[in-house]
Amino acid sequence: xxxxxxxHPTPEFMIYRHPGWTEYRVEAGRPDNVGSRLKGFxxxxxxxxxxxxYWNTITSxxxxxxxxxxxxxxxxxxxxNRLLWESVVVIPSLGLQLETHRGYSGFxxxxxxxxxxxxxxxxxxxxxGIRGWDVRYYLVAIxxxxxxxxxxxxxxxxxxxxFPVLLQVYHGVQEALNEEHAERRIHSTRSISxxxxxxxxx
Length: 202
Description:
This protein is α+β, with helices and mostly antiparallel strands. The chain is built from 4 helices and 9 strands, in the order E-E-E-H-H-H-E-E-E-E-E-E-H.
């Protein structure tokens, strides 16, 4: 069974531990908050009442109908494409995955993923940047592309959580990264030893 626990006092941060992977999740808002859901449903109800009230006006002319359709589509898109949470997923022996989930009132509908195998991940750091008059910290994965160039991938790029959250995720990823580097060194040593034995036999 996967387990999740918040990092006190940051209830928007959860760690989900599964047999094959660990997810560090930062939520844009508590999806289990009844008040937030009722507020969202209330806004939808107001829009539905407005459409029903002005229905005759909307359908009286093509221009009115087209304008109403565009506004309704824009409203639906904004409601269905709200940021729900962002995650850093650590998959031992495979790599690191950065995810962004969007949807409606706690129900994910769209997800974007950026996967980086351990073999191309150079490092995972807490970086410092300036935003306006504030100094902000953020997590960044240094990934080497197939062409040899270094590419920076920012984790939690939309939410930018607080430093205690970043520190917890940093330690978790670094632990997995160090274990992967140790495994690679062991395999490399075994390979060199095997080649040396083959040469002596010849």
